[in-house]
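Q: Could you fold this chain for me?
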Amino acid sequence: MSTDLSLFLLSIRGTLASPTVEAARKLHNSTAGAPANIAAAKSLGDLSHMVYVPMEAPKKGAGEFLILDTWNSMDGLNNFFANPTVQEQAGQIFAQRDPVVWAAVDGFVSYHIPAPSGINDRFVTTARGTVKNMEEARKLHNSAIVKTLSKARKAGNLSHESYFRMAAPGSPEAMEWFGVDVWTRADEMMGYYEDADFLAGFNEMFTAEAITAVWVHPKGEWAEW
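A: Sure. Below is the predicted structure, expressed as structure tokens.
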């Protein structure tokens, strides 16, 4: 039995098909969140399923929706989403969607810091962009993150994870980076992202400006694990 562990992050970002977030919640819980579907996903290697909406409410409609799933089996992930029923249910939840599978790359700094008791607010930021050069990106990324770690922690940062898009077998190495951070305070979080030491490395990594967003857990009870 292999003792190697590989984790894969599935991100699905898109626009909700339902007219309201509450209607989307009920639909999600009766499809992706149905007990039988949860059991099937878990049996194939889905370790975590989390859902988010933008921190700023949409001006009309239900707006955007983000799913982040952590898997420990690419075969299991592929088998699960090859199921026509799963695809049909995803089409009911999203009016349009962009599913991407990401994997951690050796050498890019990631960390998780425990949250103090009673600090329960969570804000998730995502950043996505194509890097100019893998080795240069690694150096710039790590320099910015390590240099500003204490500032990030003081601002309420709990974790930083760094991924690259999974390339299809036989394809060139993917150059698209995806970062996920978790915070406890939104106001100080935004100040950190304007820090000169952070921006000096982060802005130089990409061929164009990275796509960034801030997410929160939607109201109500959503099926997650």
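A (continued): The two ends are 26 Å apart (CA to CA).
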